[in-house]
Write a structure and sequence with these properties.
single chain, 274 residues, TATA-Binding Protein, 3 domains, 13 helices, 7 strands, 46% helix, globular
Length: 274
């Protein structure tokens, strides 16, 4: 067990922020997350967060995964105090952080996310992991499934993942897996590019549009200037930022602002009603 005192960190908010679909709350109030082929259980009481792993594993993987090294308090302080909407958003989404997730996993995840909701996305990801991921055993004896590799999916027919409830998205995932497994697409190279160049390359993948490319850039490549626009975000921009979002003010951290907005739109009314 590794215990840390963390500011601006809420595992509950991160879990419900729409960026990670293999993180879930357990019955006892603890949380578990599967990242690639790693498994972690953790719990939080106030600012105290207990990670069920060694200090070495925390420092080598989970610290970076949860973006602990970034000062989110300083980022929140940059919000214009005259912007009533963003000020309200950060008061609700104060503990959201941008995770550092695996590029391949995020490509598949956000291909699946199109015209989908969070519950169904979680179910689809669970289905493909159980069907094609390697079975693993955590240090506490829990069995889980690693995320399937490109090679594990590359041998499938384009419609095979319909059995995992992917629908028309099945062909997107299978074609992309074939391209990655054959080295037609070099993920390591894409990971080395800046935001605009990485976005351009991702848009070449079958089924990837602008919103999906920006989600991948933000949640896998940690390009914090990526600003995915979905229905929720578009409505906010039309209602609260008729003259346009203040991109210049938030250059380099626009993606974090997007997450504050997204979380607030999903959960802000819940907070206000309590």
């Amino acid at each position: 067990m590794t215990e840390k005192i963390l500011e601006n960190f809420s595992i509950a908010q991160i879990c419900e922020s729409g960026q990670c679909f293999r993180m879930e709350e357990m019955q006892d109030g603890r949380y578990r997350v599967i990242a690639g082929n790693r498994y972690l259980e953790l719990e939080q009481q106030g600012k105290v967060v207990r990670f069920d792993c060694s200090e070495v594993e925390y420092q080598n993987f989970w610290r970076h995964y949860f973006d602990i090294e970034t000062d989110y308090g300083a980022i929140a302080a940059q919000i214009n105090p005259n912007d009533r909407y963003l000020t309200a958003a950060i008061q609700t989404a104060w503990g959201v952080r941008i995770l550092n997730q695996d590029l391949w996993e995020m490509i598949v995840t956000f291909l699946i996310s199109q015209q989908n909701n969070i519950v169904r996305i979680r179910r689809c990801i669970k289905n493909i992991c159980e069907a094609y991921g390697e079975t693993k055993t955590a240090s506490n004896g829990v069995s889980y499934y690693a995320f399937p590799t490109p090679e594990a999916l590359a041998g499938l027919e384009e419609d095979d993942l319909m059995a995992c409830n992917l629908g028309y998205r099945s062909k997107y995932v299978v074609r992309t897996a074939k391209a990655v497994a054959s080295d037609e697409v070099d993920l390591e190279w894409i990971g080395s590019l800046n935001y605009q160049k990485a976005r351009t390359e991702l848009l070449k993948l079958f089924g990837v549009g602008e919103k999906v490319a920006d989600c991948i850039c933000l949640f896998a490549l940690h390009h914090l200037d990526a600003f995915p626009v979905d229905t929720h975000i578009r409505q906010v921009l039309e209602q609260h930022y008729k003259r346009g979002f203040p991109n210049r003010r938030y250059k380099g951290i626009r993606g974090i602002m997007q997450q504050y907005i997204f979380y607030y739109e999903l959960h802000g009314s819940e907070k206000e009603s309590r």
